[in-house]
Amino acid sequence: MRVLSNQLSEHVDETVHLEGWLHKKRLLGGLTFINLRDRGGVVQALLKDPTEVDKLKGVHIGSILELDGVVVREARAPGGVELHDVKLNVVVPVVYEPPIEIDKPLSHKPENLDTLFEHRSLGLRNLNEAKVFYVRSMLLKYIREFLYSKDFVEIQTPKLVANAAEGGAEVFKLDYFGKPASLAQSPQLYKQVMVGVFERVFEVGPAFRAEPSATTRHVSEVTMLDLEMAFIHGHEDVLNMVQALLYAVVTKVWEQHGDILNDLKAPKPLLKDKFPRYSMKQIHELYAKENQTDMSGEVDLTPDEERWICEYAKQHDGCEAVFATDLPRSKMKFYHMAKDDASALSADLLFKGLELATCPQREHRYDQLKQQMEAAGISIDDHAYQFYLQAFKHGMPAHGGCGFGIDRLVEKVVGLGNIKEAILFPRDINRIVP
Amino acid sequence: MRVLSNQLSEHVDETVHLEGWLHKKRLLGGLTFINLRDRGGVVQALLKDPTEVDKLKGVHIGSILELDGVVVREARAPGGVELHDVKLNVVVPVVYEPPIEIDKPLSHKPENLDTLFEHRSLGLRNLNEAKVFYVRSMLLKYIREFLYSKDFVEIQTPKLVANAAEGGAEVFKLDYFGKPASLAQSPQLYKQVMVGVFERVFEVGPAFRAEPSATTRHVSEVTMLDLEMAFIHGHEDVLNMVQALLYAVVTKVWEQHGDILNDLKAPKPLLKDKFPRYSMKQIHELYAKENQTDMSGEVDLTPDEERWICEYAKQHDGCEAVFATDLPRSKMKFYHMAKDDASALSADLLFKGLELATCPQREHRYDQLKQQMEAAGISIDDHAYQFYLQAFKHGMPAHGGCGFGIDRLVEKVVGLGNIKEAILFPRDINRIVP
Using a CB-CB distance cutoff of 8 angstroms, which residues of chain B are in contact with residue A138? Predict the structure, then answer.
């Protein structure tokens, strides 16, 4: 019966059977120590019997081993226990030297990212590298728990679409049985239609952007959390929900996995349950004043302003999450609701210097929506939009939501420097392998 | 403060505020009754005051209403309560007649599927239609709960890939910044690599098959649960895990949502916690004998055999889920493990007449894998496969898993006749809209 490495402290003085990867091998004062890795972590084993030690000759890191031995307390070993009197069985011998030291994390410096991904399959076997993706899975788990508790229903909408023009970014195009098609940039139109069914819906899935830009913030395939909620009584209801989500999820992951986050040297974020709100205009003005820079020509926030306002809010409000509100009308999508001539009922959620989500109220009035579509150059007779318009023609309540970047959330929670490091196998303009 | 329709029995004799869609309107013995739909369900309201009744003139189904009224017990009303002394506010009036009767489910007959999807945005507002997708979301929730309890880690792998040749079906191709790329048919290679990191992984996501066939079983975009587990001690470990998953999830959804499934007239499946196993050869022989048909030329199971063996197992084993084992070697993929010259260590999970999952053990031995890749016509020097081979070169334990069709699971749990009815916005050879 197999025991996992993280269960050993329950088996002190017992003989146990372990299975895993040879993670590390070293000689120390004439003694052979090996580390065995399994899904519970690593355990250190001390090999004394020359017959057992001999079995490791020519056997490299990554080999699959079975160990039978006695668990003893050993304060200097990882986990406080060690395996003694070990009988070893090499189940799958590895005959090749590893190209990287799996025991040491690969460099995440910008100039080394190619090496990181070239050796991704092995690099992820590093305990800390794996922890990034364990944290990622827990963040998604807690997101779902939060949303279920608020009556959201999870949906899956198609990624192959006739027209992905709603987003604004470049789209990937393909041939769909002789018809032109695109890869969905977001589930925008579908999730709005589904608000007409369930009131509150969310989807976690891939979104595709043919982004020609090579930045630390962009990849061509992202994992998005899209949520949408109806019967709101103002835009503030949307912001409050997104705020409660981020607060709950970050708080919970630190509560439940603070040890892992500390192993990763993740910076614990300063958060309040009410995030400060600054209008775009305020941010431009505050930034200009503090940095003696003229921002009057800027419509969007610059990346530097996004970093700066989060730092400012950290100092002034004790919170590293900020809503930048009153986004400019000129950047408004056809499905957003206008606030006035200058701005939209939309806000960006910034977290530790990075935009995680845009959180608009939607235009739910059929006649107004049709006008906005036509103003955006979309024919309201276009067959691809009929299902969308049908929902509004037959009654849609006030609603809003957000597209929330999961990769960016992981990046900021873990404290990485580039969105790609938060993705197992990222896609950018130069990278479609591995 | 808004109260939901399914909370009303807690507010008898109180005045409450409701918000929702006008779902139905009728005159009965000179009295006006309306049904209001919200995310809790529907509530019936009785309008007597002519001023209030007048507000509904020219106001059609789908209009967004606010109702203030007193909750009274009324056994004949849905939910056992009714709203009286109603004050009504039309928040968003709908001025168009609905093209379908939302109160009545649309026909799911094969010849009416085009109508079903043409009116999808409204048809889903039918309470029973929506319940199909609520059940779907709960099935996915219970799947995740089960897998988390077994130490599986959820991953996200790329859908834009250099080479999707692993599947066998046709792939969608696209231009990726000047390079050829495909849409992933499955996360096969990625999830196997991730077994080297976490031992047990799963992914729920879209998979793309350029299926030119128009059947009740195929669509070009499916939602797949892909799971993979390592350190197995034989193929049987994989089958036992998949069996436990299906058993747990179906049992739980019936326990928790039997009322909804009964509303949908879903047939409660007969399941045992150990599913019968029949080899392909046995099934061919049993079928041939019972149906006086010669099946000796068949490699795969025919759809009719799949239905028949499930019916057979229902009668003989008291279980509507069956494993068809010892799949023929001739259908084996390069990453499967052979059992002998004739068959692979692979089994199909059949449930109520439909294949839900193929559950093979994988070839984990580096040298053997390279041979099988070359035999399948793949160059082992192909850059696109290096990340995959790297994992095996540096140690992979025995492992196996499955690709499990979520849409098909929903179809069979709910008792639908076509995979498309289990998908919000299905994609087939003729359908990319809505």
Answer: none
The CATH number given to whatever domain includes residue B52 is 2.40.50.140
CB atoms < 10 A from the CB of B58, how many?
10
Q: How far is CA A23 from CA A64, A94, A98, B91, B304, in A?
A: 10, 12, 11, 64, 50
Give the pLDDT confidence of A383-431 residue by residue, as tens digits.
Answer: 999 999 999 999 999 999 999 999 999 999 999 999 999 999 999 999 9
Which residue type is seen at A193? V
Q: How many domains does chain B have?
A: 2
b/e B91-111 (16+ beta carbons within 10 angstroms → b):
ebbbeeebebebbebbeeeee
Do A180 and A78 belong together in one domain? no
At how many degrees (to 10) do helices B235-263 and B406-414 cross?
50
Six-digit token string for B430: 């003729």
Measured CA angle at B342 (ends B338, B348), to 5 deg = 65
Task: Count the alpha carbons within 13 Å of B260 in the hemisphere toward its beta carbon.
Answer: 23
Domain for residue B111, yes or no?
no
Distance from CA of A122 to the nearest CA of B (A): 6
Closest chain A C-alpha to B396 CA, distance in angstroms: 7
Beta bridge partners of A199: none
Instruction: Note if the bond before A212 is cis, omega within 30 degrees.
Output: no
CB pairs under 8 A between A and B: 254
Mean pLDDT of A262-289: 96
Q: Which of B331, B423, B80, B369 is nearest to A156 (CA)?
A: B423
d(CA A411, CA A397) in angstroms, rounded, equals 35
Q: Are strands A15-28 and A64-73 parallel, antiparallel or unpaired?
A: antiparallel
CB contact under 8 A, A387 and B121: yes
**Is it the case that residue B27 has pLDDT exceeding 90?**
no
* Average pLDDT of the residues of chain A: 95
Q: Where are the beta strands (DSSP E) in B11-60?
A: 15-28, 31-38, 41-47
What is the C-alpha to C-alpha distance for residues B209 and B114, in angstroms, rounded to an integer?
A: 21
* pTM over cut 0.80: yes
> What is the pairing mode between strands B160-161 and B179-183?
antiparallel
Residues A258 and A252: their CA atoms lie apart, in Å, by: 9
Residues 6+ apart with CB under 8 A from A123: A100, A102, A105, A106, A116, A129
* 8 Å CB contact of A210 and B177: yes
Q: What is the dihedral of CA B334, B338, B340, B342, to 10 degrees?
A: -50
Domain with A387, as residue range(s), is 127-422
